Amino acid sequence: MISIRWADWGLTAPQALRPVSGGLINASFCATWDDGSQRFVQQVNRSVFANLESMEHNLRLVADSAAATLAVLPERRRDGAVHSPEGWRIFPWVQARPEAASPAQLGVFWGQFNAELNRELLEWDTVLPDFHSARTRYAQWCDVRHQVATAQADVARELEAWSEEYIGFEAELAPGVQHHDAKRSNVILSDFGLQAVDLDTLQPGYLGSDFGDLVRSVAALRDEDDPKGNGVDATDFESLWLGYSGAFPEATTRAEQVRAMPAYLTWIQALRFATDAASGRMYYPESYPGHTWVRARNQLQLHEGLTRFLR
Q: Considering only CA atoms, which of 230, 297, 289 is closest in space to residue 269?
């Protein structure tokens, strides 16, 4: 049941409301009015994002910064808020252009976005604590690994073989404000240029984790749930790095760490998939039994290809 008080945004009820697929967490819709205008309407999944106040705070900081032109931001309600108490928010509808951005363009964009997010020392809120923390994710895995079936024991062994490396690596990382889901699908190329969407996880974290997610989504040879496995395109990796580091000079001062972030983030993603599969929590929707174990194996193969960029 969709019950939005449209008048809170100064709107009448739309003529049509159709679901928009693609996201795994929030419920999304395209609203169309009689005059042909459209908006993107979304309800936040409160079981995942319990802290609407922190999300709203961070969105306001983005809106008041130079990063605002690089993101699609929600419309304000009449009371000045972004979200309704039920977690609804409304965005302008941005029509994507048919052509795809190149790895070099995506690298430059995310470098620019990171540079703007970190240009000033602002009081950003934490939305999801320890979101990209190897230590925290490994502790979650340790709570459920006793439930791993024998058929998946090789996945468990490979994940655990890297735990000490990445927990130690995390302790050396520099802090930074990041989007925390900087993948290709979270950038829209329109007549306004490239803009970031899905800012729910934007918060303080580790500098360069956006580069890690960017490589994981753009330089991978296959989708993250392809049962054939995965690997990395080294040429795309270097194109992303040149674009990102050129637009975000701070990355070059920590080049060794930032270039290792794709392997770090991919191991964490494999760990998250395996933890969800072992626990049966179903954070990640499955299309068939064992789907999330396929995801975990796929990401471990991508991780293997990315380890060549480790220090």
A: 297
